[in-house]
Each structure stands twice: as C-alpha cells, then as structure tokens.
User: Fold this.
Amino acid sequence: MKVAKFGGSSLSCGENYRKVKEIVDSDPSRRVVVVSAPGKRTANDNKVTDLLYICHAHIRYKVGYDDIWNNICERYLEIASACGLSEGIKDSLNSVRSSMTSASSEDDIVSRGEYLNALLMAEHLGYDFVDAAQWLFFNYDGTVDYKKTYAALRELAKVHTHMVLPGFYGVMPDGSLHVFSRGGSDVTGAIAAAALSAECYENWTDVNGILMADPKIVRNPKLIRRVTFNELRELSFMGAEVLHEDTVFPVRQANIPLYIKNTKSPSSAGTLIMESFTDESEEERARFITGIAGKKHYSIITVSKNRMTDDISFIRRVLEISERYDLHVEHIPSSIDSFSLVIATKSLYRCVHAFVADIQKECQPDSIKVCDEVSLVAVVGRRMQSTKGVSGKIFGTLGDHGINIRLIEQGSDEINIIIGVMDCDFIPAIRTLYESFT
Ligand code: ASP
Assistant:
C-alpha cells in the first residue's frame, strides 16, 4: 500500500483533479490519498488557505466577507462541475459557512480548506472520506501524539480500505481543531504512511523533484535523483524549499522511502529520499555533490579577548547572553583569541544594542565587531566523506572567480561544507560552484 499526498498546486482546478485521478487509478496500491486545499491556478491567483485566513480576520474584526467566501465557493464548485461530481459540496459549503462565527478559532476556519477538498476528492476517486479529526491527535504543546494517532488510523484502515484524508489539521486533547504550520499536509501524509507501514510515501507536487540548486539562481539545475534524509535536512535548513521540515521524522523512523513526484509529469522518476543507498551507480559515485543551497542576510559578531583560551568560561558566558535574547546561533567559527557568532540579521536586529552592551558589561572583551550582509552557502553531499580535494576545489573555484570567503565550516561527518561570503557574492558563488561540480 502506498500513501500519496497531493499538494495545493496539484488540486487547484478540475483539470488537475482529473490528472490526480489518472495517477491514483494507474496504481491500485495507491489506496490512501492525502490532500491539501486548492492552491493557486496562476501566479496571481490565491490559495484557498490564504482566503480562509482572511475570512477569519474579517470575522474577528466584524467586517463582511461575502466576496471572499463566494470566491472560495467558486473554487470548489468549478472542480465539482468539471469532474461531474454531485451537488453535495454545496451543502458542505453551506454548513461550513454557517459554522464560521466569532466563536470559531483561526485553526477551525483554515482547516476547512483541506476538509472540503478531501470530501470532493473522495467522491471523485470513489474512496472513503476519513476526517483528520478522527485520527490525528495533538498534545497540548502542539506536538503529535504519535501513539494515539497511529493506533486510531490503523483501526480506521481496517474498515476503510481506500481512503482520502484531509491534510494540515488534527485535534487537541480537548477536541478543538489544531493545524500544523503552513505546508503541513506534507506532515499529515508522512504520519499516515508511518502509521500504516506504507510501502512508500509519495509527495506529489508541481516540480520534477528536488533540484541541485535554486532554479531562480541557476538556469535549469539538474534533478537530484536520490538523496539521503541527512542530506535533505542539510539542504532544507540551508534554504532549499522542498518539504515541510517535520515531514521527514515519521517516515524516517519507520524506514519508509519518500518520493517527490510531479503531477504534471507522472512518468518522470522524481526524487527518492531514503536513509542510505547501497546500490550507487557508477555515475552517482563519480559525483561528490548532491546539492548546493544557501541563505542571505546573516551577521557575524566577532568577540575578541587577549588570552581568550585561558578564560575557560568566556565562550559559555557570551552564549548564555545570546540564549537570554533568544538568538539562534547557527555557527561559531573560532580562533585563539576571538570567536564569532553567526546569527540571522533579522533576529539579531531586534536586540543588537542591548545584546552587545550585555556582552561588553558581563564578559569584558577587548572588542566586539558586527559585520552584516553575509550569506552562507552549503555544498552538501554524502559522497564527500573521505573524498580528498572537495574543499580544495570549492576554495579554488571561488578564488578563481574573485570571491572572498568570510568563513569556513565543515561538520565532522563531512556531509557539508559551509562557506560565508558577502551578500553581493551570493549568486555568483552558487553559480560558480554549481558549474564546477556538475
Ligand atoms: N493548505 C495549507 C497551506 O497552504 C497546508 C498545505 O497545503 O499543506 O499551507
């Protein structure tokens, strides 16, 4: 049995709904389907979820929202009519509308996008609709109660052999609805796959898979055919927009292969994500790099103190101050008498003056320097481990192109090398590295 999750762009209109049915019908093992709410049909269109957030704001401030609601209804009605479905969705839309009152929470309202889409998709596929409120249980802190959730879905699967599940939401212990953060239907699909020990989890979207670099920076980047969960974590953390970051945990723990596939091009291989690969092809072995990702707008705070290494609590005291200000320190490159904190500029500038003043007062360094406009670029690849010359090639390539390196980091598992460059060198660095490694 496979769990197939379809994202909003794959469900944006009746025409796409028909493509989804072809995909599901072409493989009888696709018995569990998870859906997002309808996404954008064109670049200027709206996602139904965004419209529902706006409805909630209107209700809260007692402003009429008939136009927005009608816009939402038209989306579902178009799909129903294009796919020749019954008029039942009209009643569902009416009952959702009458349940939307000032007592409704934001989560109650935005969850209806997936709920209504799952009702329609269930009818379209001839599968059973199984509400997320029946099986996806959250703890009060917003984490998933996996034990209760898995047990509930397994019970439901005994009765419903073919089901459509709405993504994105579940229930709190008090019965109220709760949603994941945006893009959370990916997580619902992963939980369903793990609960039901699926053969694989397919995440259907509007791209061919994960690309080796951001297509907004590199023209036609190559597709990553196979990537490990660790590599994916590194690439996603460093800015590659792939899946909701909580997607990996359930499938990884249950050792379930995860595929990213393209609804518009179902026969394309897509990207396969697994714990490890034992059967690497010759071509794969020849390529050290899996992908390149990066993020702009970092600040480097360099704290210097003569004989710093003799003061063994110095670094800890500075870090305690950053903790007090809730600053996420992403890297800590160091030398003998100084060390630096690499922090996203946006979060630092909430409190930069107070933060620096506290370091000065409590740790009495000789100097504190703040340098902004730094970008981090990560070169990620499982085959870099024990491969000689990869960092040499990175530095040589950047040097040859006149790009100055501000900082260097390599994790001891040798799966990534991170370099800091000035923001103005961000795009040239990624392009240059991509070209030299592909
Ligand atoms: N519809 C929700 C969103 O737009 C959840 C999802 O699509 O995964 O974020």
Notes: The pocket of aspartic acid is lined by residues 8, 36-37, 47, 49, 113, 167-168, 182-186 (CB under 6 Å). The longest strand covers residues 291-304. The chain has two domains: 2-206, 291-437. The chain is about 40% helix and 20% strand.
